Every structure is written in C-alpha cells, then in structure tokens.
Here is the input.
Amino acid sequence: DPKNDSRRCVYSETACEEYSAMCTCPWMVLPSEEIFWEHFHIFLHSGVTGQFVENLVKISDTPSTGMLGNVSVDNRPLDASMTVVYTRGMETLENTLDHIRQARKITGDNALAGTSGTEVFPFSIQVYAFFEQYLGLVRYTLAVVGISLMAATGVMYILLLDGRMLLINLVVIAVIEVQLFGFLTFLDIKLNAITMVNLIMSVGFAIEFTAHISRAFMLSVGTRSERSSQAVFKMVQPVSNGALTTLLGLLGIGFSAYAIFVKYFFVMYIFFIVCCWLNGVIVLPIVLSFIGPSSSNPWQNPDEEQRDRNMIPLGVFTSKIEVDAF
Here is the structure.
C-alpha cells in the first residue's frame, strides 16, 4: 500500500551488514546474491519449505564450476527455476485465453529474457496444455483443410483428367466444408482439436461422394443433361450403399456411454455423410448439367456437344413460355 510507508521495502546497502542485505522490509531481510547462493543448497535440504522449492528448480546432474559463477548448487548448475502464480477469474474460455495472452506478453517483456537471453515462459498443465489450442484453432483448421484440398486436387486429377471438372469438384468440396463448419453451431459442437481432425477427414468423405459421379459424367455420352442423368443413374446406388454401410458402422458409437464419442464422432459423422451425399448426388449433377465439361468418351457425338453450347437454360425457357401463355 503506497499510503502506508511502514509496509514498504526500502533499498539500503548497509541496512544489515551481518547478512549483506540489499533490501530490508519490516517483516523480512533479503540477502545479497552471494549470500543467497552460498546457503541455497542448505535451504533446499531443510524442512518442508526447502523440499517445496526444490520441486520448482531443475539442477543439472553434471558438476560445473567457473563459467556459471554462483548460479549453482553443490557445484551443479541451476538449469531452470519455476515460480508459482495463482490466478482467478478463468471460469470462461475467453477469460482463460485472455490470461494466456497476457501471461505471454508479460514473460516476453521480462528484463531477464531481454538482457541475458534466458527463456522465460508461462505454463500450466490445467491451462496451457488443454486451452492453448484455442488461440489459433481457426487459423490452423483453415490451413490444414486447405492442405487437404491441395492433396485432393492431385488425387482427383488422376481420375478425372480434366481441368474444368477438377475445378467444379474442388468448389463443391469447399462448399461442403463451409456447410459442415457452419452447422457446427446448430449441432452445439465446439471447434477444438477433435473437430478439426474430423473436418480434415470430411474432405475424404466429400471426394468419395463427388469423384464417382464426376467420373461417370465424363464417360457418358449425350448432352450435359443426359450425361448428368446417366451419371446419377449409374452411381447413385453404389454411392448410397457406401453411405449406408458407413452409417451402419457408426451405430455402435451411438450407443456409447461416453458423451464425447456420441457428440464428436457419431453425430458429426452422421451429419458429414448426409451432407456429402446430398451435395454429391443432388447438387453436383445439377451443376454439371449446366457447366459440365465435354465428354472424354470417344463415342461422344460432336453434334451433341454443339447442342449443349446452343441450349437455352431451362429456367429462362420455361419463364418465356409462361409469359407467352398469358
């Protein structure tokens, strides 16, 4: 308390010559650096307090003299030390993350780290080991999903061998990822490390439900609409069978006694499969019927390709008929 001078420490080199004190307080005397290190090893082996402090320091097993000076215990260098800090008001995630940011800033601005190069950092298993992931989780998730899409590009190009079809598939997969990411709120699922891994795996699900339809479209003949219908007719059953067998494999997790497995694996994967199936079997064929690439089938009739280029979009044509009818 600045108003109560009797409780404040006062700097004085000659306050207590017996202990070579550099600072004296009404309730304690702080020894000089030389006296501190001279008696530090005795303190560590004396009583409960010494044993507690011994758990806060890391002493090297290899003896060393000279270079480290007095910063040693029994001629063994003091490699690291830890200070206990008590915190409060971290009941919410935002408060916990704010604490981590402020603690890092304080230790980063520490004079010891700036002058001697000593590494100073805050850490707690209960706080940092579990909550540090949330500091950059959105950035990490976007980065790893982007890397997964890059890998998907190489895999699908081998199957499709067409740049436009590859681009359409990547856009559809990206839309699926946005849908999955957005619906996490409605499913009451938080973004964490488990969710991030599941989103990465959902890229594989999306490829499974789009690549087969796209490949069938490329091998079909006729106009875009005809080829889109043929692709759905050929692949909807195997793709749906794959979705159904995956759903059956997930039923066991749904009966788990642990809520984390039900919420983060059963519910999420069920939603992933349904969302990927809807986009792969319904949305993708509709997109391909309008802007799909040319067929890679050698039996494709060039006249049908020309019909695709000259075809009036269905929505505009229907609208014109309705106007003329009135």
Notes: The CA atoms of residues 163 and 284 lie 16 Å apart. Confidence is low (pLDDT under 50) at residues 13-22, 64-70, 312-326. Strands lie at 10-11, 23-24, 29-30, 57-59, 72-73, 76-81. The longest strand covers residues 76-81.
